[in-house]
Write a structure and sequence with these properties.
Layout: H1 3-17, H2 21-28, H3 32-40, H4 47-57, H5 61-65, H6 75-83, H7 88-110, H8 120-123, E1 133-137, E2 141-147, E3 152-158, H9 170-183, H10 186-195, E4 203-204, H11 206-213, H12 217-230, E5 234-240, E6 243-249, H13 254-267, E7 275-278
Helix pairs in contact: 2-3, 10-11, 11-12
Length: 287
């Protein structure tokens, strides 16, 4: 009943995607002849292949079968389909692949802020399935990706209209320095390590942290108070029979962990890259 509609739709989608029958065949691990038969109505794909075709063309199966109006999958649906059936390691690699795809996709819109022109093919690497450490530096944006036993982190930074003017603002400098001063002590890292571990309760006292980290209670209390001023940590006073006790609560702070992870990669990570386009990363003072 839907043979004609499927055939027409397959031709329409392939043409719109700008690929050949051979491209489709290679992507789906089938023969060119099979794709040709689908498109001329001589045969139709079975259900599993209909699903694969819908994923490949980024449409719903109903659209492919002609059961609904032409409608692209939402961004959420498209991303979800990318991760279906993947284990944790494969999901991490796929996430990094998606991050890497963002910049080439938006290159045309951000390049207007660039002081010089780069050949896109020279900047962006070809698709690589196991991409553990990469670095791309350009005037308009910077991207760093690292995946190892130690960290899984992806960073993307784009030039902003303010030219990072806040970096030269004394009041902003004072606030920014607070977080770096906080992180510049070994005891602090030990406390943050335990606070972010699943072994640590989300509510705790300085005494509890001291017993589990080896940091003296007075010092642990100082670190936790400072963490409350610069991170996602809060405290309340518990009135107990033996006296008032400060109880802290923290569900974890991803930004703080990200800063530490980046510092680890800078100071302790390996120097080699699977891909490194080391252009200039002078983002301040651009057009």
């Amino acid at each position: 009943m839907y043979e004609c509609k499927i055939a027409e739709k397959l031709v329409e989608l392939r043409t719109s995607k700008g690929v050949t029958q051979e491209d489709v065949a290679q992507s789906l691990s089938i023969s060119n002849k099979t794709v040709s038969k689908w498109e001329n109505g001589a045969s139709t794909p079975d259900l599993p292949m209909v699903i694969e075709l819908a994923k490949y063309y980024g449409v719903t199966t109903d659209t492919l079968l002609g059961l609904s109006e032409d409608k692209k999958q939402s961004t959420t649906e498209e991303i979800r389909s990318l991760f279906e059936g993947l284990d944790r390691r494969e999901s991490v690699l796929k996430a990094f692949e998606a991050v890497r795809a963002l910049i080439p996709a938006m290159y045309g819109t951000v390049s207007q802020y660039s002081d010089d022109i780069y050949d896109r093919e020279n900047v962006f690497p070809p698709e690589i399935s196991h991409f553990y450490r990469s670095n791309i530096s350009l005037h308009e944006f910077f991207e760093f990706v690292a995946s190892s036993e130690n960290v899984n982190v992806a960073v993307m930074m784009l030039r902003n209209k303010s030219d990072f003017a806040w970096m030269n603002d004394p009041s902003k400098q004072a606030e920014i320095v607070k977080i770096f001063k906080f992180l510049s002590n070994e005891d602090t890292l030990s406390v943050l390590y335990y606070v972010h571990s699943t072994a640590c309760s989300e509510s705790f006292t300085a005494d509890y942290i001291a017993k589990n980290t080896g940091v003296k209670e007075e010092r642990a209390s100082e670190i936790l108070d400072e963490f409350c001023s610069v991170g996602a940590c809060h405290w309340v006073t518990a009135h107990l029979s033996e006296g008032d006790v400060r109880v802290y609560e923290c569900h974890g702070d991803g930004l703080v962990l990200s800063l530490i992870s980046l510092a680890f990669e800078r100071m302790c990570g390996r120097e080699s890259y699977e891909y490194n386009f080391n252009g200039r990363c002078k983002m301040i003072g651009g057009k």
